[in-house]
């Protein structure tokens, strides 16, 4: 424990923390620990990633992250390394932040987790706490434990990083270790802020030593710590994401009813959200949720429930509502333009949400796909995500073009569609946009603009569940 408690000394001979996997979870987490005063080894076997981090350039966009990277490469508290074995061998606490992508059947693909467990096993040169931070199905920690136990007895020692011997990892003589679960709740675009100001920290542990180590690491962050067993901690993460997804699909379903009866979903959300039992957040209706977590974690939880014979209808409905959002938006566009073939449509927003360049499972890209299918000419703009989107949809002059600003994308268009709720889009000079368009149709897929201001600016404006009374009802009550 002494080395852990001495973290503020920053002394290089103290045992560092190893963070395995330098992705959207691992990198912000590693830099967060460095800022809290720890020596951190950020390990990844993706050579390009590590090379780039060593040059001081963040590997993806995340507010405040570049500054932390620069600061802690200079302070020496963050050391990127491609030598995963050596990082594990040198550390007592090892955070596992590798990817858990989705398999075709919806289950989580845990092959990277299993590989890491074996790597840990062959570098078990003394007590280690292995902390699972990646989102994984309940019971994964148990499997990690069994894998380390099995391979620590059979795998040959790898290397003796920092001059340590790993010779103890021989048949029958494996050192003690603990596995803990400490799910991340980082939101992309707010990951650094979330790290330093968590609402809670969840730790699933099986020993006092594991609990004390984790409590010591997080001690500077003042928030409730929920201590549970391993499976409960794992399930907390999946349940949190599933519940948030449920809120979004719920309000999206209500938004369709709003469109049908002429009600306003924003006011419904406010009206229900002021009840603290419901809460205001995650009730923004629109074209639905995307990203690396919600769609994948929902599928994994459905798989887990069904694997254990637990009916998962509620989760399946959440997924179905979400998948239908793009069709709801396309219906509005067809209603406005009738035929989409040959129409120029500007799509504003490609990232799955603002403040990130991440396009994984982005609803915006699904909109682009549908537009192309219907023969529209798409004009794309996003403040951060164009390079990523170009990998999926390469430029095809006159059919699919990328622009440097929202104004350029909208010029000459028959419709503008807002697909990501970037702040920049709220602040556009919409009158100027309207004047530059061929036909002033505006579909606000994220409900970020004021309907009456947009109508005053001369737009035929449609949003998601805020359309006012439909023409047929309005006419019948005149
Ligand atoms: C999510 C969880 O919030 C986070 O706690 C977890 O650790 C990882 O997964 P993230 O994927 O970064 O984080 O994005 P989030 O901010 O939750 O948004 C997810 C998606 O839901 C986005 O596409 C967003 O546009 C959409 N969304 C969010 C809505 O459509 N409506 C809302 O009210 C909120």
Please state the overall shape, judged from the principal axes of the Cα atoms. globular
Tell me the span between the first and last alpha carbons.
77 Å
Give the CATH superfamily of the largest domain. Answer: NAD(P)-binding Rossmann-like Domain
- Beta-strand segment tally: 14
Task: Assign the CATH topology of the largest domain.
Answer: Rossmann fold
What small ligands are held by the chains? Answer: uridine-5'-diphosphate-xylopyranose
Tell me about the largest β-sheet.
6 strands, parallel
Mean pLDDT: 91
Textual characterization of the structure:
The protein is an alpha/beta fold. It folds into three domains: 17-228, Rossmann fold (3-Layer(aba) Sandwich); 238-316, N-(1-d-carboxylethyl)-l-norvaline Dehydrogenase, domain 2 (Orthogonal Bundle), CATH 1.10.1040.10; 323-476, Rossmann fold (3-Layer(aba) Sandwich), CATH 3.40.50. Helix content is 44%, strand content 12%. The protein is built from 20 helices and 14 strands. The strands form three sheets. Strands 3-2-1-4-5-6 form a six-stranded parallel sheet, with helices on both faces. Helix 6 packs parallel to helix 7 (140-154) and helix 10 runs parallel beside helix 13. The protein is globular, with a radius of gyration of 25 Å. The model is unreliable at 1-13, 159-170 and 469-478 (pLDDT under 50). Bound molecules: uridine-5'-diphosphate-xylopyranose (UDX). Uridine-5'-diphosphate-xylopyranose binds at residues 184-188, 241, 244, 248, 282-284, 286, 288-291, 293-294, 352-353.
């Amino acid at each position: 424990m002494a080395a852990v408690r001495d973290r503020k000394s920053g002394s290089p001979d103290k045992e560092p923390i190893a963070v395995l996997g330098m992705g959207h979870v691992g990198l912000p987490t590693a830099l967060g620990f460095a800022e809290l005063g720890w020596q951190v080894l950020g390990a990844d076997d993706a050579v390009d990633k590590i090379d780039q981090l060593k040059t001081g350039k963040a590997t993806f966009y995340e507010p405040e992250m570049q500054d932390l990277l620069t600061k802690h490469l200079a302070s020496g508290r963050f050391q990127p390394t491609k030598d995963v074995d050596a990082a594990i061998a040198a550390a007592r606490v090892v955070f596992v932040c590798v990817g858990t992508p989705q398999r075709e059947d919806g289950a989580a693909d845990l092959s990277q987790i299993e590989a890491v467990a074996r790597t840990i096993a062959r570098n078990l040169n003394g007590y280690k706490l292995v902390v699972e931070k990646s989102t994984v199905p309940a019971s994964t920690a148990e499997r990690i434990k069994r894998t380390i136990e099995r391979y620590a007895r059979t795998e040959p020692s790898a290397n003796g990083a920092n001059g340590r011997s790993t010779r103890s990892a021989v048949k029958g003589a494996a050192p003690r270790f603990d596995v803990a679960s400490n799910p991340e709740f980082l939101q992309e675009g707010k990951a650094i802020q979330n790290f330093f100001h968590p609402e809670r920290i969840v730790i699933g542990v099986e020993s006092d030593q594991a609990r004390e180590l984790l409590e010591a690491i997080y001690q500077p962050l003042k928030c409730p710590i929920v201590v549970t067993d391993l499976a409960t901690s794992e399930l907390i993460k999946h349940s949190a994401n599933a519940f948030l997804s449920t809120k979004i699909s719920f309000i999206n379903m209500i938004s369709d009813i709003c469109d049908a009866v002429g009600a306003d979903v924003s006011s419904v959300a406010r009206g229900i959200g002021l009840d603290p039992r419901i809460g205001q957040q995650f009730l923004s209706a629109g074209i639905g949720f995307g990203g690396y977590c919600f769609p994948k974690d929902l599928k994994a939880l459905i798989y887990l429930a069904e694997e254990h014979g637990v009916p998962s209808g509620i989760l399946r409905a959440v997924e179905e509502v979400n998948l239908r959002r793009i069709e709801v938006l396309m219906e509005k566009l067809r209603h406005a333009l009738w035929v989409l073939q040959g129409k120029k449509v500007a799509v504003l927003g490609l990232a799955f949400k603002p403040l990130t360049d991440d396009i994984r499972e982005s609803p915006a890209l699904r909109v682009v796909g549908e537009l192309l299918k219907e023969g529209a000419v798409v004009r794309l703009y996003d403040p951060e995500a164009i390079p990523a989107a170009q990998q999926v949809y390469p430029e095809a002059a006159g059919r699919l073009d990328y622009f440097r600003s929202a104004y350029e994308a909208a010029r000459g268009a028959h419709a503008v569609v807002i697909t990501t709720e970037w702040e920049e889009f709220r602040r556009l000079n919409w009158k100027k946009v309207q004047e530059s368009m061929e036909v002033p149709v505006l579909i606000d897929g994220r409900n970020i603009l004021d309907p009456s201001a947009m109508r005053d600016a001369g737009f035929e404006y449609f949003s998601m569940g805020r359309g006012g009374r439909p023409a047929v009802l309005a006419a019948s009550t005149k």
